[in-house]
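Can anyone check this?
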Amino acid sequence: MLSYLNVIETCLLPIPFQFSDGDEFEHALRIMAKRTSVGVGVELLEKQLLGTEFNHMAGIGLSGDYTALQHLILAWAEFLVSNETTYSREALLEAKDILDSINNLGH
C-alpha cells in the first residue's frame, strides 16, 4: 500500500495528494474516513478520487481501450480538487459521481 501512496503522490498533478513521510497511512485514512455532509463537495470528491487512484494503481476501473480515459478523468478530478474554489459545489459533485461510477464497476 505504501508503494501505491508513493505513486499516487507523483501520478498526475503535484497536488492534491502529498503525504508526509511516516504519516502516509494516517493521512490516507483521514481522507477516506472523513464524515462529510452532502454539502461539502470537495471532501466527497477527494474521497472518491483517492479511492479511484488506489483502484487505478491496482488495475481496477476502466480498462482496455478506456484506460487512457480513466487517466484523463483522474487528472481532471485532481485539477478540480486542487482548484476547488474556482468550481461550484455542483461541478465537484458531478465529478464525484463519475468517480463513484468508476469505483463501482464491479471489477
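Reply from J.R.: I decoded it. Residues 41-57 form the longest helix (17 residues).
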